[in-house]
Amino acid sequence: MSTSPKPVKKVPIHLQSAQNRVYIKNGQIVNHDRTFKADIYIEDGTIKFVGSSSDIVIPGGVRVIDAGGRLIIPGGIDPHTHMQLKFGGTVAVDDFYHGTKAAIAGGTTTIIDFVLPDKGESLVEAYDKWRAWADPKVCCDYAFHVGITWWSKSVADEMRIMCEELGINSFKMFMAYKGLYQLNDTELLDAFERIRSLGGVAQVHAENGDVIAKNVGKLLAAGITGPEGHELSRQEEVEAEAVNRACILAHQMKVPLYVTSITCKSSAEIIGRARRSGYCVFGETLASSIGRSMNGVRKQDQVLYTTSPPIRESAETPRQLMKSLA
C-alpha cells in the first residue's frame, strides 16, 4: 500500500542560509553620529546587544566573527530600485532574487522598489502583483513606493488604502514619458494635494515631457536614431525647468517633495535655493552621475551609459553634484 509523502514546508529563499546567532567582537562601529568600539550580538536577524563584552553572557552555539581592525557599518538603504521592471518592451535583467542578492553582497540590506501601474490599472492590483514577484525571492528587507501613472477619483481613493492598510506613504509622479506615465500640471496638483491630506511624501521624475516629445520628433526627422539622440532630446535645461516647476507646485500644495534622479548642476542649485527658502524638498542624485561624465565616451559606447535623465557631458558635473550632496 503506497502512502503519500509527508509535506515539507518550503523555507523562503532569503532564509535558507541564515544563521540564528552571531557574535561580532572587537569591531569599530560607524554610526551616523559617532564611531566607537563595541561588540554586537545578533539573534534571529535582530541586533540584541551593542556594548562591551563584559556586559553580556553569550549563549552556546554562536557563530563568532572577530572584526578586529575593521569597521562595522550599518547596512545601506537604496531608496530607488527597479527589479524585473517591464519598460519599453524590455524587462530589467535583475529580478528580486538576483538584484537583492547583489545588494547584500555590496552592503545594501534594504531596498525600496517601485510599483508602477499601467495606465488604467488599479493601484491595489498592481501592488499585489509586485508583492507576488518579490515575496518568494527577496534576500533583504524591502519596501515599495507606488507610482501615480494616471489620475482619477479611483486612484485618489486607492491612495488611502495604500497609506492606511498597506503601509505605503510615498507616491511617485512623472513629468516625463508623455503618453505613458506623464501627468499634466493640474493632475500633479491634485495628486500633491491628496498626498498632503494622507500625510505622505510626493516624489517626481522631473523632466519636461512635452519638450522631450517635440525634440524626439525633430531628431527622428533628421535621421538621428542612435544613443546620442537621448541626451540631445533632454538637455540640462529640460530637467532643470521641470525641477523648478515641481518645487513650486509642491510648495503651493504644502506637500513634502523628493525629486529623483538629479543629474546636473542647475537642478541641484534649484533644489538648494528652494531648501534655503524654506521649501520642504529633497534631491536624489544617481551613482552614475557622480561616478562619471560623458566627456570622452566614444559614440559607439554611449548606449552603455544611458540613463534618464542622462549622464551629462561636462567633466565638472560629478564634482558639482558631490558638492551639493555635501
Q: Could you describe the 3D structure shown?
A:
By secondary structure, the chain is of the alpha/beta class. The protein has two domains: 19-72, Urease, subunit C, domain 1; 76-325, TIM Barrel. Helices cover 34% and strands 24% of the residues. The chain is built from ten helices and 14 strands. It has helices at 96-105, 123-134, 153-165, 185-198, 209-221, 228-233, 236-253, 265-276, 287-291, 317-325, and strands spanning 21-30, 35-43, 46-51, 63-66, 71-72, 76-81, 86-87, 90-91, 108-115, 141-147, 170-174, 201-205, 257-262, 281-285. Strands 6-9-10-11-12-13-14 form a seven-stranded parallel β-sheet. Strands 1, 2, 3, 4 and 5 form a five-stranded mixed β-sheet that branches. Helix 3 packs parallel to helix 4 (185-198) and helix 8 runs parallel beside helix 10. The protein starts with 20 loop residues before the first strand and ends with a helix. The model is unreliable at 1-9 and 13-18 (pLDDT under 50).
